[in-house]
Amino acid sequence: MRVIRVTDHAEVSALAAELLAKFIAEHDEVVLALPTGGTPLGMYNELVTLARTGALDLGRATVFNLDEYVGLPSDHSQSYASYMRRHLYDRAEFDPTKLHIPDGNAEDLVAACASYEGRIAEAGGLDIAVLGIGANGHIAFNEPGCGLNSRVRVVRLSDRTVLDNARFFDDPRAVPRHAITMGVGTIRSSRALMMLASGEGKAAAVAAALEGPVTTRCPASAIQLHPSAVVILDEEAASALRVRPWSKEEFLADPHAPQFLFL
Ligand code: PGA
User: Fold this and answer.
1) pLDDT tens for each residue of 162-208
2) Ligand 1 centre from 133 Cα, in Å?
3) Which residue is closest in CA terms to ligand 1's atom 8?
4) CA–CA dist 41, 181 (Å, integer)
5) Angle between the 9-26 and 41-52 helix axes, to the nearest 10 degrees?
6) With contact defined as beta carbons under 8 Å apart, do 83 and 90 qualify?
7) CA angle 143-126-24, nearest 5°?
8) Which parts of the chain sit beneath pLDDT 70?
9) Is 132 in the pocket of ligand 1 (CB under 6 A)?
10) How far is CA 165 from the centre of its chain?
11) Interstrand relation of 192-197 and 178-181 (parallel, antiparallel or unpaired)
12) In CATH, what number does 2-260 get?
């Protein structure tokens, strides 16, 4: 696990986009898992800029979203399908047949989960899963208490997560209480992981995830078990760590560092 500390959210976003773009450029086919939320917005802006300048071909990317709310129409402004269109898919040249998101409106949600897990397998598995981390230590919508080998399934959101996400909704009472999420096991099966965090509100969760015990109390702690993970933090998010992270310069200059990209 490589933990890299940069100054601020803009630098987190730029480095994440740089590493992803490099990976995409070096491979004909790439299968990504991508997150939603506030953290990846800067990375998406950077990716769009790289694509518009011709430095990045996003049409080669197969993308599976980490999660989606249950019961929110896909054209609702806060559905993750809308989020992805607004912040990424409508702003660059993607192949629409390669973009996947769980169907939170399926009549049979259990079948929708199995189908999503199956589609990931059919695509050859995930190459890189990009992750945020919740203030309660969740990854995707895997809340504290969930199994570290869990697969795609319907979950109930914690009160903390509902509260955190209410900031995106006009009516906070409209935040769904359930979601379909990739499981921690699904995420751990990705060949590489890239976790991003910024802001002091994430410092305790980041320290628990990276330096605490591997425990269901902090699903993000499963990242410690992954053979090929990189974590990009800004100064505030890294502020509770006891082990000194790498600087960006040290990471980029290290001849072994690109290993995380593949393995
Ligand atoms: P955020 O959410 O990026 O909006 O902070 C991260 C997460 O909940 O995984």
Assistant:
1) 998 999 999 888 999 999 999 999 999 999 999 999 999 999 999 99
2) 6
3) 134
4) 20
5) 50
6) no
7) 120
8) 257-263
9) yes
10) 16
11) unpaired
12) 3.40.50.1360
